[in-house]
Amino acid sequence: MKKYFKSLLLVFLSSIAIRCSGGLNNSPNSPIITDIPSSAKINETIMVIVVASDPDGDRVACMVDWGDGSDLAWGSFVANETGISVTHTYAKEGSYSIRVKAKDDKGAESDWSLIKTINVTSGSNIIDIEWCEVQAGLFGMGNNNEFDDEKPEHNIYLDSYYISKYEITYAQYCKFLNAISVSPQSGNTGVVYYNGNIICEIGYGNYWDQDILYDGSKFYVKSGYENYPMVLVTWHGAKAFCEYYGWRLPTEAEWEKASRGTDMRKYPWGNTEPDCSKAQYEMCGGYTVPVGTKTGVSPYGCYDMLGNVWEWCNDWYDENYYSVSPDNNPQGPSSGTNRVNRGGSWYSGSGFIRCSDRSGSPPSTRSNKIGFRPVKD
After folding, report:
1. Are 327 and 157 in contact, with CB atoms under 8 Å apart?
2. Claim to verify: residue 242 and residue 116 sit in the same structural domain
3. 302 shares a domain with 259
4. Is the pTM of this model over 0.90?
5. Residue 68 and residue 38 share a domain
6. Residue 139 sits in which domain range?
7. Maximum distance among all alpha carbons in the chain?
8. How far apart are CA 136 and CA 75, in angstroms?
9. What's the CA gap between 202 and 196, in Å, rounded?
């Protein structure tokens, strides 16, 4: 009986102590970091703002792990929800995952929070992209008068984004290949692997010669072909390029809005039929042409949205997706066999170079008719 009352007394005294101290101490919330760039150069100073909050209103300190093995250390304690300026420089090229945690002045810590991946390159591997802004808002997608997979017409809302003015060129993709230190599977020709996937092919037999070559130590572009669109690139290769520089592939909806604007036009330049001054397609003869050669510019200033090369989009292709698509920033089906291609190519007939025309290919496809362009938020 004495032991029982002694236990009750201890519980009572503990509850009094908790109440007197203001209750149990809660861990801080996971911090957030703002202003992290998607890419940076070696020895470039990066400055970010770290903000941590504590449910008890305690003072907080933060620790940033930059992902490069640099020493970890807690910063100074500051008032709850105060922004803290933190700087860092990277000494080597690579892709680094940045994470952060917080602790309060009573010693309680949050879990690590993965914030973002940053790609660090030497200046020679930075890719210069001209971007076209696509403002947030509604646009009409699809076409009730064409193929079944373009039906029904439906209104879509998209957040704002930026899309590359031009298709990615041989010269730009060549920089990427050299930056990630890969090589063809079979000597100086053949497929190129990266992170377990085929990303492109160097050489294509007698039917089509790739205009990126390999000399045993580095990739280079055949003279005179620097500004031609990159082809023989898989969906994996297009995605890897985009992610390496902190960008992404467009959704199918983003691609279509960038191509046709908000007035349901049939072509980027309006509703007049295509000709060879506006787009590179079957009637024009030959193969690809340097990006930006044709005059058929979209309402947002994008070149070659139709013809030249089909362009990979991020979405899985589903011919019936429009009947179930959400009307706010659709991301495409959750699974599938083919990834979306848009825009037609140099080989396409006039009936297939329309803003609403849809197609798809297995993500491992390597074709002299398919390229891509990135977007960023």
Report:
1. yes
2. no
3. yes
4. no
5. yes
6. 131-170+211-376
7. 101
8. 39
9. 17
